[in-house]
C-alpha cells in the first residue's frame, strides 16, 4: 500500500508545479529569441524537442530554481510574477552549466537521453551553453533594477565556477595523505557548485519583489545551505539509493571513483584502512560501499545534511517573510533535503 503524502510534501510539490506553469511560457519565449539552431539545442536540453526539432515530452528538471525565485518574490510580499525574470535567468544559467558540465565530465546521457554534446557535437553544445548564459544576463538586465540583479547573478556564477574548478581538481588529488580532499573542502565546493545558484534564485526573486537587503541576504544563505544538504543527500543516494528512484545504478559514484562526502568522511576513520585499495577498481564496489557504511560515512553525510537543513530553516524562520510563501519555501527545503533513501 502506498504511504500517504504529508501535507508539507504535497505543498512543496504543488509549489513546484505552480511555479513551473507560471514560468514556462516566459522561458520558452526567451529561448525563442536565440538563433534557430541554438534554440533547438536549448529546447532539446529542456526536453521540449528531439534532435531536428520534432516536439517531445522528455522529462525536464523539477524546476527547483524557478520555484525558489517565484517564492522569493512572494516571500517579499510581491506577486509571484515579479520573480519570473529571475526564474527564467537562473533556469537558463542552470541549463548552461549542465551543458558545459556534461562536456567537462564526459557524461554521455542527461535525464535518460543523449547529452547535448552527444546529440549535436561538443562545439555546438559549448556554443549553446554560451548562448544560454548571455540570454540569462540579457533577461535580468532588461528589468527595473536589473543592474543589481546582474551583479548578484555574476557573484553566484563566480562561486559556481570556483566550485566546479575545485570539483575537477579533486579528481587529481590522492585518497589519503596530507593532500587528500577533506570533508570540509567538499562542503565548500558543494556550496559553490550547487548552493550558489539555489541561493541566487531565491535572493533574485526577493530582490525583484522589493525585499530589503537583509532579507535578500538571508534567502541567499538559506539557498546555499539547501544546496549543500541536497548534494550530501545526493551523494548518499549515489552509493546506496534505489535505482528505481534515483535512475542511477547502485554504487555508480564508487565505480566512477568520485570523491563524495560519505567516502571522504569514512576515510578519516581507522575502520576504513582498507578503503583506498578497494576504491582502486570497480570490481570492489559492493565491498567498498559496505566498508564506507561501517566506517560511518553514510551517517556522517546525513548528519551534515541535517545540519545544513536546520541552518536553512533557521534563516527562513528568522527573516521577515510573508507567511504563505515562507511555509512553501520551508516545505520545499524539506522535500529536497529529505528525499527517500
Outline the structure in words.
- Strands 1-2 form a two-stranded antiparallel ribbon.
- Helix 4 (84-105) runs antiparallel to helix 6 (122-141) and helix 8 (183-208) crosses helix 9 (213-240).
- Helices cover 70% and strands 1% of the residues.
- The relative contact order is 0.12.
- The mean pLDDT is 92.
- It contains 16 helices and two strands.
- It is an all-alpha fold.
Number of distinct helices: 16
Q: Mean pLDDT across all residues, rounded?
A: 92
Beta-strand content estimate:
under 5%
Derived structural class: mainly alpha
Termini, distance in Å? 18 Å
Q: How do the SSEs run, as a string of H and E?
A: HHHHEEHHHHHHHHHHHH
Give the overall shape, derived from the CA principal axes: globular
Number of strands: 2
The helicity comes to over 70%
Q: What's the Cα radius of gyration?
A: 20 Å
Strand order of the largest sheet: 1-2
Uncertain parts: none
Sketch the major β-sheet.
2 strands, antiparallel
